[in-house]
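ok here's Mannitol/fructose PTS system IIB, seq below lol
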Amino acid sequence: MAEISAADVKQIVVACEAGMGSSVMVAKQLAKQLKPQGITVTHAPVNQLADTPHEIVLVHRGLSARAKQAVPESVVVIFDMFLGDLNVAKMVGTLQSGGVVTDG
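and the structure came out like this:
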């Protein structure tokens, strides 16, 4: 299980199928929430994750296997809902409080 301290997180990438739509919405929402921590949030197609700078990958469950295969050493946080997902809220809370983010 991969993990990373909040202090070491500078960039999160929201992985998606084609790089548009829902992932852009999630990335913008997270960018606003995590701006005070100095964390940048971008989005990228899952097949380009290896070429995208990040410490954490946020990905919908349907693409999680592909994301883990593309970047096996990265922390991969899986979500089910594009808005109001508990895993996303937990990750944001952990980053805001200075904790440790783990896969899941």
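fwiw Residues 40-98 form one domain. kinda neat tbh
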